[in-house]
Amino acid sequence: MRIVIKIGTSTLTYQNGCVNIRRIEALCRAISDIMNSGNQVILVSSGAIAMGVGKLNLSEKPKDIAGKQACAAVGQCELMYTYDKLFAEYNHTVAQLLLTAPDLTCPDRHKKFEDTMNRLLSLGVLPIINENDTISTAEIEFGDNDTLAAQVAASVSADLLVLLSDIEGLYTADPRRDPTAKLIPEVHELNDEVMKLAGGAGSKLGTGGMETKLRAAKIATDCGCDMIITNGSYPERLYSVLDGVPVGTRFFAAK
Length: 255
What we know:
By secondary structure, the chain is α/β, with parallel strands linked by helices. Helix content is 44%, strand content 16%. It has eleven helices and eight strands. It has an eight-stranded mixed β-sheet with strand order 3-4-2-1-5-7-8-6, with helices on both faces. α3 crosses α4 and α8 runs parallel beside α10.
């Protein structure tokens, strides 16, 4: 299988921006094992700005664009250093790709991206993708890595997209506010009723929320790729995903 895995900022880091070492180690171990079994994996990773916040000992994420870009520049180094070190322990080589919107929308640049991705995967490399927050103000202000992950999944003809989030999946209501909210295990059609279940943004260090995840589901399923939202606090759930054990919410590709 060709699998795109997206992990969010709140899953990778603590609220102060420092890396959650135990969780990222578990994530890298699970992904390495999945690759060892013959699957191709692409990791779309948030966390650069948050890690920059932690590295610079700031009390919160800056609100101005220049401040966010500075944090991204510092944090991206920390993020890739951490991934390179941990994946190397399992004999896997990583590659960094920082993308902006035109890289996936401009035909010539999109073709080069696809060619590079296919070559990296054929070489057994794990591509790690993030938005180029340091130079692209549009992505910081309006973008999110859920949508980016879905666009990547569509571009590389992935079989499955997994969004590791700070929530179990799609609920009938916001479980943080409504104790009667129930998890929806399967979605076969992204109709208006489902889209209305989207809530607001996630953690203060992240940019995404359920709205961005449903938008990602629409992109992925329209391109023939199933998508799963599950709680990234338990990276071992990736094994369940590969074994076909139901976890979180699964969005089925359009027929």
